[in-house]
Amino acid sequence: MDNSEESAIELHGDEEIIEVIDLNDTEPGPDDLADDLEDVDFDDAGNAGDDNDGWETEDEMEAEAEQDDSDLTFNKHTGSVFCVRLDPATNSLAVSGGEDDKAYVWRVSDGEVLLECTGHKDSVTCAMFSHDSSLVASGDMSGLIKVWKVETKEEIWSFEVGDLEPLFAKNFIFQHGSDPNMAVQTDCFYRFRFSSSTIYRSERCFKTFTEMHVVYAVCLLTGQDGHQGALTCLACNKDGSLMLTGSVDGCAKLINITTGKVVGAFSVEGGKGKGSKDEEESNSVESVGFCNILPLIAVAYLDGTLAIYDLSTQALRHRCRHEAGIVHLRWEQSSSVVSTCSLDGALRLWDARSGNLVAEYKGHTAEILDFTMNREATLAVTASGDNQVKVFCLQRPDR
């Protein structure tokens, strides 16, 4: 075989020459590159996003990253977390309860578990410390209440009272007062109280670890003055003279505790549940509260409205809009700032004087179901349906 035959191109089967490319010994010059660029259709190249094999720009990747403003995440729960409280003595411990039928007492600074409260029959929906933080009580939806000694990690008392209302029983586990033993409710009075639209004047026994106490409820008038639906929340002012109640009927009622008379009613027009699983449910009142330093009250609605009312004139001062339904509100003890948590997983701080948003904190991937704050309002702890509890340091320019 000669040299010409050795250098010949061998074709196989149906192969054919599509294009002949000249190979030059010289490198392409600037003019050649410019000519090549003129033949490029940049519009078509920009529409080739489907062929980029999932590549993203750095800005797109950062935009998709979840915002998390928290300083610590407690993730020991294996189900939604329904409640969280700080210990009143030091504000250094938290207790959280959840769908996993457990409550945990843990350190806020590093998330270390100090006590695991087990033995519950259903979701733990309420938990709190005694006034001196030596005891912690946890209650589940089956009605089982357990009391634990934090230092020794031992269960010292338990009682079954019937089904607990998940949103409100937490307020009745401990009777905050001068009794150092605190009081634990032993009957189902609160069930009757919160499953009805009427609060009756009556007395029920609360059992402490050493003795019995009697507490009183206030009469909320029935009929036109009363709520037209089940109660959802209530709050009292700091001197105990007024009570504010909220209901699924979309109205908040102001009650004189001494006389039992309804002295005010508050509602917002229209609105449906926003961000909830059932968008068609009524615009119920989800949380209420009194400001400690000014004659103001706050009412949170399921449509995402936070309404600030003047207590003396009962006039609406501000309407603060949220992206989703509000779950809870909480006033700071020594300022006019009110905080809210909502179904969009955000914690927000509002200035009740101006109605302006002061700060917003995100980090949860599901709705916030409960939150608590320390005395100085420099720290907030949130419980969420994403199975997590988060600790946020609240930084504000005025502090």
End-to-end Cα distance: 94 Å
Number of helices: 5
Query: What spatial form do the alpha-carbon principal axes imply?
Result: globular
Low-confidence stretches: 45-56, 166-220
Rg over CA atoms, rounded to whole Å, is 31 Å
How many DSSP E strands?
A: 27
Chain oligomer state: single chain
Query: Which strand order spans the largest sheet, edge to edge or round the barrel?
Result: 1-27-26-25
Q: Compute the average pLDDT.
A: 77
Helix amount, in percent?
A: under 10%
Largest sheet: 4 strands, antiparallel
Structural class: mainly beta
Percent strand equals 35-45%
Region (Disordered): 21-73
Protein name: Angio-associated migratory cell protein
Biased composition (Acidic residues): 21-71
Keywords: Repeat, WD repeat
